[in-house]
Amino acid sequence: MTTRQPETNLVAMLKNRPTEAFDEIIEVYGSRIYWHIRRIVVLHEEAEDVMQECFVRAFEQHRSFRGETNGSLAAWLYKIATNEALKALARRKRNIFASLDSLGARLAADFDSEISPSADEIAVRLQRAVVQLPVKQKLVFNLRYYDELPFEDIARITGMSLSSAKTNYHYAAQKVKSIVTLDTNYEYEADAL
Amino acid sequence: MKQMPYRLEEGALERAKMRSRAAVYAASQRKTTMSPLRWVSAFAAVVCLVLVAFAGYDKWFAPTPMERLIAEMRKAPIEIVYDMTLDSSIYIEEGDSMSDMF
């Protein structure tokens, strides 16, 4: 088994041996990126396509990666993954003028068909609430709650200001909490948000 | 990592990673140089753009009738301009209406 490279080594490797570096990058960040995409597009097949597109796009643009301006390598990959996932969502819209937020009900229906039989009911309820959030709030909530990223990285990934990212998280958490606590039995989990 | 309630087959994530690796490898082998046909079409596009720019420039900056008149007057010999000024002062001095000037 090979030992995992720390991010600084990966960035250095990216400059000299990009193809090998990407093997390692996919190994290290693949799962996180997959789940980030899956939480946006919901369907596994689509998440797999978007993940592939994301890494190809990252490979094509790796020369433009600057640690100082793009933040961490993870944040850079998250940003590309987010853009690709939103593009995939936009392709699903029936009306080109409709907002991505109008897909909430459809995503919730897709989510119901994708629930794992062994999934915890609270996690299901929470995720069903999250997929219905407006896009900006959903992105911020996912990156903060599930990926536990700092707000600085979230702002960079989503292209928002720091205060806007915090505000969106606040509203998202409130909405999720109100949906989850409709059934008072789930108050305990909602308080953790 | 927090629990994800999504259905995911055994090994599906590893397969997705393998697919991404293969796609990255394919992208690394892809030639990025432009084919001759693309070079020719790019050159033709640039030529068209330059021609359109020239035509547009001429049309856009063509002088208005008033500007043409002023330019002609500037180029005219001083005697003619002087005579014209003299004519108008005569009319003004005689107190005729402006319509007499035309």
Secondary structure layout:
The complex is a heterodimer of chains A (193) and B (102).
Chain A: H1 7-16, H2 18-41, H3 44-60, H4 67-70, H5 73-92, H6 104-113, H7 121-131, H8 135-146, H9 151-158, H10 162-180, H11 187-191
Helix pairs in contact in A: 1-2, 2-3, 2-5, 3-5, 5-9, 6-7, 7-10, 8-9, 8-10, 9-10
Chain B: H1 12-29, H2 36-60, H3 65-75, H4 78-94
Write down the domain tally of chain A.
2
Largest sheet data of chain B? none
Kindly state the mean pLDDT of chain A as a whole number? 85
What is the terminal-to-terminal distance of chain A? 37 Å
CATH architect. name of the largest domain in chain A: Orthogonal Bundle
Spell the H/E element sequence of chain B. Answer: HHHH
Beta-strand content bin of chain A: under 5%
Radius of gyration of chain B using CA atoms only: 38 Å
* Percent helix of chain B: 55-70%
The gyration radius over C-alpha positions of chain A equals 17 Å
Major interchain interface with per-chain residue totals? A-B, 35 and 21 residues
Number of helices of chain B: 4
Individual helix count of chain A: 11
Looking at CATH, which topology of the largest domain in chain A would you report?
Rna Polymerase Sigma Factor, Chain: A
According to DSSP, the number of beta strands of chain A is: 0
Q: How many strand segments of chain B?
A: 0
User: Could you state the oligomeric state of the chains shown?
Assistant: heterodimer
Query: In what range is the share of β-strand residues of chain B?
Result: under 5%
Spans of at least 5 consecutive residues with low confidence of chain B: none
Q: What's the order of the H and E elements of chain A?
A: HHHHHHHHHHH
Q: How does the overall form of chain A come out from the CA principal axes?
A: globular
